[in-house]
């Protein structure tokens, strides 16, 4: 959300001008709102029933790691078109258990979703790491 505020601040001086720029202001306002909407759309949880990652239908390419929501909380996972399902990193689960044991389990494992929609309900792309010299 910090980037949205920077966009708004960038155009703030337009609204403070003494000259009547109402047409220009309306157009800039429209551009800012569309930009905000686009950014918010890209950074939301996407239901798997709505769509899968971009290359989910390309069997030769495994989708990049995504943030995924499971019944046990947020984790990392990736969609494998060859398997037609999600592989998910689960913590707090012993390899021989069907359900995570949050009190005793501590072994991270990668598990495949055997039935679509049972393990991964939503996903979103992972954010890019900051470039050298950038601060959050």
Fold topology:
Elements: H1 2-10, H2 12-15, H3 22-42, E1 46-47, E2 66-70, E3 73-80, E4 85-90, E5 109-112, E6 122-125
Antiparallel strand pairs: 1-6, 2-3, 2-6, 3-4, 4-5
What can be said about this structure in brief?
The protein has helices at 2-10, 12-15, 22-42, and strands at residues 46-47, 66-70, 73-80, 85-90, 109-112, 122-125. With 136 residues, it is an alpha+beta fold.
Molecular structure report:
The protein is built from three helices and six strands. It is of the alpha+beta class. The protein folds into two domains: 2-42; 47-125, no CATH class. It has a six-stranded antiparallel β-sheet with strand order 1-6-2-3-4-5, with no helix packed on it.
How would you spell out the order of helices and strands?
HHHEEEEEE
- Give me the secondary-structure category: alpha+beta
Evaluate the radius of gyration.
21 Å
Question: Unreliable runs, pLDDT <50, ≥5 residues?
Answer: none
Helix content: 25-40%
Oligomeric description of these chains: single chain
| Average pLDDT, all residues | 75
Q: Total strand count, please?
A: 6
Tag the structure with descriptive keywords.
136 residues, 2 domains, 6 strands, elongated
